[in-house]
Amino acid sequence: MADIEGIKELKQFHENVPMETPGFFLRGAGSLDWGMKNRLARIFNPATARTVMLAIDHGYFMGPTTGLERVDLNIVPLMPMADALMLTRGILRTTVPPAIGKPIVMRCSGGPSILKEDLSDEELAVDIEDAIRMNVSALTLQCFVGGRHESRSIHNMTRLVDVGLRYGIPTMAVTAVGKELTRDAQYLRLAARIFAELGAQIVKTYYCEEGFETVTASCPVPIVMAGGKKLPELDALTMAYNAIQRGAAGVDMGRNIFQSDGPRAMMQAVHKVVHNNLKPKEAYELFLSLKDDELKKH
Ligand code: 5RP
């Protein structure tokens, strides 16, 4: 018989204190289920509603591109500084320590390599069971609005969204800009809105000088800014700062981090820009001094 002695008789129901039903901090996510919100709250810092994602998935069509030749040596040490990691299941399984504790945004599309003219010929390349097995926080794929295989890539996205909704895993749709596709606000607005309308919970898009705020304003889910080609560090920090000030909910940068002379310093400077609104000039000074400290250590 259970020992009932010592059970506290006085119950505290606080009948006069109404239970709160708090909203959710992230744009467009209020009606999502608990698992989906929990995963989004791992990717986006609830204190700032922003994220610094480190994109290292380039090998899925580019092979060992500059800076990603040895992910174990050059990239794994950067991972603790990121809020989230965007990568392929191959790199995750072979190279990333399972104890890393960072949310994973898994690249789930693939097909053509850089040897092909048309990169839009992609298919879904990961089974949802494998993504769940690897405990991912989001699924992601490239979408080619205006591309030769536009319908297929959009259909890939809606399939990923459906399967993600079944298991509470958000999908991040990435705006692909091929050679013939421009990066002006009109194009980026069109693509971002299509992705959100068709169910993506996060949109990743490139930055444009003219009208980026109209891209973020007209997209009902968070937008993270893609870094693009390597720029001088001050320019990359300025671009990240402008994107955030004009409504982006974070960045998902690759080459501008891992191809920098000071990748660790750059990670930290970008983090300050995103989460603390540090101005580009101050962020660049921070980058230089952290890079200097790093050089002195080695
Ligand atoms: C490639 C991607 C990449 O992950 C990402 O855009 C590359 O990052 P960066 O442009 O900052 O090097 O989605 O299609």
What attributes does this structure have?
40% helix, alpha/beta, TIM Barrel, 10 strands, binds ribulose-5-phosphate, 298 residues, eight-stranded parallel barrel, single chain
Distance between the termini: 66 Å
Q: Which structural category do the helix and sheet elements fall into?
A: alpha/beta
Tally of structural domains: 1
| CATH architecture call | Alpha-Beta Barrel
> What hetero molecules are bound to the protein chains?
ribulose-5-phosphate
**In sequence order, what are the helices and strands, one letter per element?**
HEHHEHEEEHEHEHEHEHEHHH
- In which order are the strands of the major sheet placed? 1-2-3-6-7-8-9-10
Helix content class: 25-40%
Within CATH, the superfamily carries the name Aldolase class I
Mean pLDDT: 94
Here the CATH topology equals TIM Barrel
Runs in which pLDDT lies below 50 for 5 or more consecutive residues are none
Tell me about this structure.
The chain is α/β, with parallel strands linked by helices. It has one domain (34-260): Alpha-Beta Barrel (TIM Barrel). The chain contains twelve helices and ten strands. The strands form two sheets. An eight-stranded parallel β-barrel has the order 1-2-3-6-7-8-9-10, surrounded by six helices. Strands 4-5 form a two-stranded antiparallel sheet. Strand 8 (202-205), helix 8 and strand 9 form a beta-alpha-beta unit. Helix 9 (233-245) crosses helix 12 (280-297) and helix 11 packs antiparallel against helix 12. It is globular. The model has no long low-confidence stretch (mean pLDDT 94). The chain binds ribulose-5-phosphate.
